[in-house]
Design goal:
This protein is mostly helical. The protein is built from 2 helices and 2 strands, in the order E-E-H-H. The chain has a two-stranded antiparallel sheet with strand order 1-2. The longest helix has 28 residues, at 66-93.
């Protein structure tokens, strides 16, 4: 995973969850930081909601094969959210609100 440096000209940052050498999922670091933040919050909320559901669910009818599926979904949502938050944070530190 490439680490984004706001002082370089690297506009597109691949997500850490990409598995290929030519990543199909990227963050456009020049997008409004509020939009990046909203995308991050959406993923982290989805991850949190899934964890809340799992906390409340009885696993009597569950299958052991479900566990890696669930943890993989949680990983993707959480890691993508963290990648987006990092870019939003770095952008907002130097971002000025429109007047």
């Amino acid at each position: 995973m490439n680490t984004w440096n706001p002082l370089t000209n690297d506009r597109y940052l691949p997500l850490q969850t990409n598995l290929s050498d030519s990543p199909p999922l990227i963050i456009d670091t020049e997008v409004n930081p509020q939009d990046i933040l909203e995308a991050a919050l959406q993923r982290i909320r989805a991850s949190s909601d899934l964890l809340k559901t799992l906390h409340c669910v009885c696993f009597k009818h569950g299958d052991v094969e479900d566990i890696p599926h669930i943890t993989h979904a949680l990983y993707l949502l959480t890691q993508d959210g963290c990648d987006l938050l990092k870019v939003a944070q770095q952008r907002m530190m130097g971002w000025k609100a429109p007047s």
